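Task: fold both queries, return tokens.
Query 1:
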Amino acid sequence: MEPETDRTEIASMRRGYLKRRAEYEAARADLMERARSDAARIIAMIIREYRPLKVYQWGSLVQSDHFSERSDIDIAVEGITDPGVFFEMLGAAAEMTRFAVDLVQIETIHPRYADLIRRFGRLVYEKDA
């Protein structure tokens, strides 16, 4: 192969790669926006219907560089300790999105994990005293 042909083919492959990468990033951004929108609607429903003391958002929607097509919606609630109420809330949340919903009760998870959510998650709601 001629060196000029190699350069032309390499340039063509590079353009193709950059185009595919841009398409992937655009699709990822659209998906992340849908997940964020769904999360906001779910959080609003939780606050309105279940009145928790606090709501945290954590995971890849907070650390967006970790978001991928396999990401879920991570929400932690504080002040909802009744298992029946919690599972009702989880079911209602799951019906509002096509994303998997990882909803946890701060009071029932390992204290170290709860501390990580409180420290690195985003407090999106706190009930007025």
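Query 1 returned. Query 2:
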Amino acid sequence: MTTYAQLTQAQRYQIHALYTSGSCQAEIARKIGVHRSTICRELRRLDGRNDYDPQKAHAQAVGFRVTAHNNSRIKGTLEAAIRVFLGIDFSPEQIAGVMKRFFGISISFQSIYRFLKRCYWYGDELYKKLRIAGKRRSYIGNEGRHRKRRQAPVLNRISIHERPEEANLRSQTGHWEIDTVIGPRHASAILTLTERVSRYCILLKLRSKQSQSVIDALEERAFGLRTKVRTITSDNGSEFAKHQKIADLLQCKFYFADPYSAWQRGTNENANGLVRQYFPKHTDFNNITQEELDSVAFKLNNRPRKVLGFDTPANVLWGLQPFWLK
């Protein structure tokens, strides 16, 4: 973890001298080797050039830091745990949920955000461990967002409307959604599978977006998956044209969502969004190894989910205790 050092009293005297001589904040920051925002916060502490007293400012900073630490619930072992969980990509809400479910400690996610803000004010860049949300989605159909490539219709498809109620109601594990995440210029792709109840995901590297490539990727995982697959639901992409072979390979039923109805496969769409946190748009998947995909899937499957009562997908589907509890 990268951190800023606290301003020393000597640096505060430098700030005073430079600022009273007319130097701008950017120049002061450059000369004493800190970020411009540090200078901005420091000068805002005592309201301007004429009132800035470096000795008083230093005493105030030290006193406030001690008071803030003493008044905060987040210190010691709890602070250490929060830092660890942020380091493995948990959100403040997930951390709060885990602390209550597994450790019996009640703390709100708002308190964790306040802790991060306090860290920021004192030069600790812990906030950078937060996952960055993606771009706001447009609430229009896929046909309005992307120009669809002309492709041959998938033959012998079975509609999602014939799918068992157990799959629709998420009352039984074993019902999966399948999709592809595409690289730039449609030159590379990965296959994503997400189980509807547990949200457990599998990420597989594809040689191409051709249907045979999907079969080849699944063959390597078929033996371990068969006992956990009852149905699969996909969109109408040509990469799933050999859906009957997939069904035979995994010994399951294969269903297709309605055209332009991504909401019918919301579980997989959400999982793809989580994958994009690690592989942003314009990622060339030709340069990504299967080992890297497995590593990301491992993180996602061991991340607590609010929808699961802050249990993990791996534990719900396979009964595997999270590695961070061991």
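Both queries returned. Flag for query 2: The chain is about 45% helix and 10% strand.
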